[in-house]
Batch of 2 targets.
Target 1
Amino acid sequence: SQQGEEDPQALSIQEGENATMNCSYKTSINNLQWYRQNSGRGLVHLILIRSNEREKHSGRLRVTLDTSKKSSSLLITASRAADTASYFCATFYFGNEKLTFGTGTRLTIIP
Amino acid sequence: SAVISQKPSRDICQRGTSLTIQCQVDSQVTMMFWYRQQPGQSLTLIATANQGSEATYESGFVIDKFPISRPNLTFSTLTVSNMSPEDSSIYLCSVERGEKLFFGSGTQLSVL
């Protein structure tokens, strides 16, 4: 399977702390994306990083990409209770017209 | 961006029955995607629906079980046929805009 693996599967932190989650994938990609899912509902796109980029920021989000290690990380700084959700990485592979989603990290922010 | 209205949001169904899920997009799109998310799992693509042609199904999914309609460029339906408890999942439709996917709010299906 080309599905990405995310680590950790679940993460609980205190409000205000930073949260880091990781994604590993298996083959060369065109881009990698992160999505958030609240309470098993629809996913919301957070950020896209291309294979020729190493780091990208959006508000409190920071994404890194290491193509040599086939891995990416998502950092959420100064976490808030509203950040409680599941986070998925998704990869777009060369020659494949579809996004493939990772296994997800369930993040809980403790007030 | 894209706004997708998906319904029903949830349903509880009896074994052997069928449920049709609808998705309406706020503007025209070429392809619509249907995903399944089993409890505690990631998303798995069921099929890609193009207007005016048969849907393209992924390995492990067949048209008899998951028939899809795509009558125009803003609307699609997915039917889950002859349901069993193993079909209990969240079903999601999505569209692509600028390499990003936009999702409906999902249909949480429970089969008894």
Target 2
Amino acid sequence: ETGVTQTPRHLVMGMTNKKSLKCEQHLGHNAMYWYKQSAKKPLELMFVYSLEERVENNSVPSRFSPECPNSSHLFLHLHTLQPEDSALYLCASSQDSGSSNTGELFFGEGSRLTVL
Amino acid sequence: RKEVEQDPGPFNVPEGATVAFNCTYSNSASQSFFWYRQDCRKEPKLLMSVYSSGNEDGRFTAQLNRASQYISLLIRDSKLSDSATYLCVVHNQAGTALIFGKGTTLSVSS
């Protein structure tokens, strides 16, 4: 079983829908991340949470809204998305955001989102 | 200049070949560098860190040139199982998260 679990694995939604992506880590880490991976583009950092506080918000549109209720769970709330938001959304965790210095990011398998 | 730049490839090589990937980065203050590997339709996983003195892990050798802001990965004696996308990764300006390159795709054939 992977240490970082994402649900749902696949999601299709219309532009007027509201949905949420969920991430849970079972590694005892204190930092969690959302990355976006689109075809032919590098992974894009979206949000960083350390000890449940947001420490990085990488100019992401407000139609993406993160929530970190505790150090094990991370959500990405989606509303009024655009077709260009279709991508693979990857959650990751690390011991703490400072120890991303060690490169030890553990990724979930991703949630593949399609916006119609 | 892009934060992390890689030749996307693809690199198509026969088994047993030696192949090298290069990467340049724009943040001269970055202190940490890594190579990740991503298999098709899978999540990225850490392959190895890159140290100033260069480091080796079996068939894989990583090198860092801070003056040129350049990182390399050398794979010797390529195996079919090495087929994947290799991602060059450096720290962001704030040092709070990792920035990924687009990746270089390697295909090893028999």
